Structure formats: structure tokens, C-alpha cells
Fold this sequence. Notes:
0% strand, 236 residues, mainly alpha
Amino acid sequence: AAVKAEIFGFDYGSIHIEGGFASAEDLIKTASGETGHGSVPEDVRVAMAIAREAYSKSKLPLLIDVVSDHFFGKMYVGRMLSSGREFLAEYVRRWADIKTLTAYLRIRIAGLPIEDFKRFFIEGGHIDRAEYRTFEALELDGIPARLVFSPYGKPLADAVSRLVHENSFQPLSGLTNVILEDFLRQNIYISFGLEVVLAYAFLVWRELRAVGAIIRMRRAKIDREKIIERVYYGEL
């Protein structure tokens, strides 16, 4: 976010999330290319520099997201998989698949070199590099047929098919929320443990996100039935 704020000239300080190692001020300075800010961890500093580099070559903001997701994912997936808890491992595998597939489709649609995807691939998901290599020989409308055989089956294939034919990421975004949410919902009935805490926190976050989206849609005067439909199908 700090890199985007520096590049596109908006205020980062107001959206800074407290609780990390680095202050908003130091992140802003690092995003601008300054060095030597001790509170910014080295891996974060490297990620920010590469995000700027990727954007400067392509001029496409999506590569900033792809780079950020890659560096965060490398840390996130590694820690979750090494936790020894199958609940956390399965959750992060699904998260990695969502981020990786979305990045791949965005890169293909934007016509960017596939090397950008390979460089920033997030390891650890159920859909591995070998499967993505088979996608390279396919047109976009041929990919859904391959995804039928993934752990997410026909629902994922249908969402990607709609993306290809309707040029909308909304169906895929809605499904990926469901992929994570349904898994977490299974854990809210556990009496004790980290599982139920994470499940509860995620569902509260989803509820707050839905309320915010409903308020924005009402202000935009979107039809009430359409709002209800989007809430029901998890497309917020």
C-alpha cells in the first residue's frame, strides 16, 4: 500500500495498519527509494523495491499486488505449513491457490510475459507449478476444463469460465471467499483451540466487509434485490 501511495500520490498514513514492525513514516520513505530505515524489516524493504521495479517496467499496477502477495505469501505459507497444525496448513493451501490463480489470470489477460508469473509464483497450494505449465499451451477458455480436476472442482471451473467469457472477476472473487469461509465455518463448533478463534475472527471480518459494501451500494442507489443477491452469493 505504501508503494502504491508513493507512485500514485495519495495519503498512505491514513490507511496504515498499526501493529507491525515499521512506522507509516518509515514505510513511506522506503517506498520512495530512501534506505536505512531500521524499523522496516529487510524482506519488506526488498519486496517494496522489487514492486517498484516491476511497476516501472510494465506501468501496470497489478504487478505491485502480485509482488506484494508473493513476498507475503512466502512468509505466510512457510509459517503456516511449519506449524504442525493441519487446520492452518489446509487453510493456507487454499489461500495460496486463490492468490496464485488470480495472479495468473490477471497476468494472462493483461498480456504480460508469463515469466512475471513464474518469478512471483506462491508455492504451497494444491495447484502446483506443473499444472500451471499445462495452462501455457492453452487459450484462456481452455483452462476451466483443467480446473474441473482441481480440489475445487466444477465451481471453480465455472467461475473461471465466466471470467473468460464475461470479463468479470466477480464470480471468481465470490467463490474464493466461499472456499475459505466454508472451511473456516467447519471449525466454529470446536470447543477450544486456535481453530475456533481464527474462524470467528474471519467471519466477523466478513460480516463487517458485507455491511460496508451494502452501505456503499445503497449510496450508489443499486437495486435492493441486486444487493440481496450479492450478499446471498458471497460476492462482497
